[in-house]
Specification:
Blueprint lengths: L21 H32 L1 H11 L2 H28 L6 H25 L1
Helix pairs in contact: 1-2, 1-3, 3-4
Length: 127
């Protein structure tokens, strides 16, 4: 049956009055990094397929992967991999029922962000 009072109901709070918490932002960032890792994976698959196909195909793919844009994608994918891994560890901790209070959850969120940056820098320097 149609709802005849549809226009008389109050609206839900919108993003303009909602203050995002760190835990919600890190959750969204986990989803974004998980999907963004597909870009780097597809780029690597293209590079490997081009290497198997012909020298000219490999030259084209290698030129793209080693360009400034390819380097940027690879650098960001290293950060995304570290962040996504640390966020996964955070969720494993939460799955045990620990660290569910807000102050500890926020500390774990900052640890994921800071840890991923530090581990990315270390990875880039070492490798």
């Amino acid at each position: 049956m149609a709802d005849v009072n549809r226009g008389n109901r109050p609206l839900s709070p919108h993003l303009s009055i909602y203050r995002p918490q760190l835990t919600s932002m890190t959750s969204i960032l986990t989803r974004i990094t998980g999907n963004a890792l597909l870009v780097a994976a597809l780029m690597l698959v293209w590079w490997f397929l081009a290497a198997a196909m012909s020298p000219s195909a490999f030259e084209r793919a290698d030129g793209f992967v080693t360009s400034w844009f390819g380097d940027l994608v690879m650098f960001l994918s290293v950060w995304a991999l570290w962040y996504h891994s640390l966020a996964g560890l955070r969720h494993l901790i939460w799955d045990t029922g620990r660290a569910m209070d807000i102050p500890t959850a926020e500390k774990l969120g900052w640890a994921c962000i800071g840890g991923s940056v530090v581990l990315t820098i270390l990875t880039v320097i070492v490798v």
